[in-house]
Automatic annotation (TrEMBL):
Family membership: Belongs to the methyltransferase superfamily. METL family.
Record carries keyword Nucleotidyltransferase: no
Transit peptide among keywords: no
Physiological role: S-adenosyl-L-methionine-dependent methyltransferase.
Protein name: tRNA N(3)-methylcytidine methyltransferase
GO molecular function: RNA methyltransferase activity; S-adenosylmethionine-dependent methyltransferase activity
Enzyme type, top EC level: transferase
Swiss-Prot/TrEMBL keywords: Methyltransferase, Transferase
EC number: 2.1.1.-
Pfam (any one): Methyltransf_23
Organism whose genome encodes this protein: Oryza meyeriana var. granulata
Length: 330
């Protein structure tokens, strides 16, 4: 009864959020026409010289680690409650479903997923030990979220490293010899350990992943290494499993704020702190996921007007929203 009550509570929260959330406040094509007609934005549209790209310093994972160290305050946390409306598959999945959150940050995506189902298991990775510890603290202390034996954080830079063997759906390579640093989901500790987790004595792996969530993660790495990153993610996905994707879209407000000297490639930008951002078109996302042998189920722009509460200024936000499935024959 308790589990059913928690599930109902999660659904009610998602329905309440749905009443407040809009994803088509304006048409992307209208914004595109406006931007491309404005001479002030012309530098965003021009091809990027190859020589200029090679002269730029490559983005570093350390920049993101430094970013998270500067933003460890709980004030920086904002739960992504819209997630369950945009990806209702998470609410309607079987109780034993396993979710992998790639680039979990401070846990803003993890919280609504764990709250939605009392038996869903979430594995979450990030390149920053500090942000994993903060995520562990936030998630374990969030009211209504029970993490016992169903929340595991592990340290991994998905742009460079392969996933640990215990996560795969196929028989584990080298009998789980490839250990990685794990932050164990426990309300009493956030210590770093080197242990496989959630495995019975007769198991060599957790059996693969039903859902992979990539929420504002892929845009943080250079476009030319995105294909290899996606292939690594797909390798731990079960046949028939889904990749749930949301990221920055072309002509989003944050893109238009970048200055000419911050361009480091075509639709690629670097902030003053060294963190990186790419802005996607639907075609770019479609080709990336198709190359990873995933089937497109849904792909669209989400165009949202956000209002700054302090000054009342309206901002046009553009995100790319997609769902992709691994063929059942894989």
């Amino acid at each position: 009864m308790e589990g059913g009550g928690q599930r109902d509570s999660g659904k009610r929260a998602a329905e309440a959020e749905a009443e407040e959330y809009h994803c088509h406040d304006f048409e992307w094509e209208d914004l595109r026409a406006e931007v491309e007609a404005n001479p002030a934005f012309s530098y965003h549209l021009t091809p990027f010289p190859t020589t200029a790209a090679t002269s730029q310093p490559p983005p570093s994972s350390e920049a993101w680690r430094s970013f998270h160290r500067r933003h460890t305050s709980g004030k920086f946390f904002k739960e992504r409650r819209y997630l369950l409306k945009e990806f209702p598959e998470l609410l309607n999945s079987k109780d034993s479903a396993k979710v992998l959150e790639v680039g979990c940050g401070n846990g803003s995506t993890v919280v609504p997923i764990l709250r939605s189902s009392p038996s869903m298991t979430v594995y979450a990775c990030d390149c920053s030990k500090e942000t994993l510890e903060k995520a562990n603290e936030i998630v374990c202390n969030t009211k209504g979220v029970h993490v016992k034996d169903r929340f595991c954080l592990f340290l991994l830079d998905v742009s460079k490293e392969t996933f640990p063997d215990w996560l795969f759906c196929k028989s584990c390579r080298n009998s789980c010899a490839n250990d990685v640093d794990l932050v164990l989901g426990s309300s009493n500790s956030s210590m770093i350990e080197k242990l496989p987790v959630f495995l019975r004595d007769d198991q060599c792996c957790v059996g693969g992943i039903d859902f992979i969530t990539m929420i504002f993660t892929l845009s943080a790495i250079p476009f030319d290494i995105m294909p290899a990153t996606l292939e690594r993610c797909v390798s731990v996905l079960k046949p028939g499993g889904l990749v749930l994707f949301r990221d920055y879209g072309l002509y989003d407000m944050t893109m238009l704020r970048f200055l000419p000297h911050q361009r480091v490639g075509f639709r690629e930008y670097m902030r003053s702190d060294g963190t990186f951002s790419y802005f996607f078109t639907l075609d770019a996302v479609r080709e990336l996921f198709r190359a990873s042998v995933l089937v497109e189920l849904n792909l669209e722009y989400c165009c949202v007007i956000s209002v700054n509460r302090k000054n009342g200024k309206k901002m046009q936000r553009v995100w790319v929203h997609g769902k992709f499935q691994k063929p059942k024959s894989c």
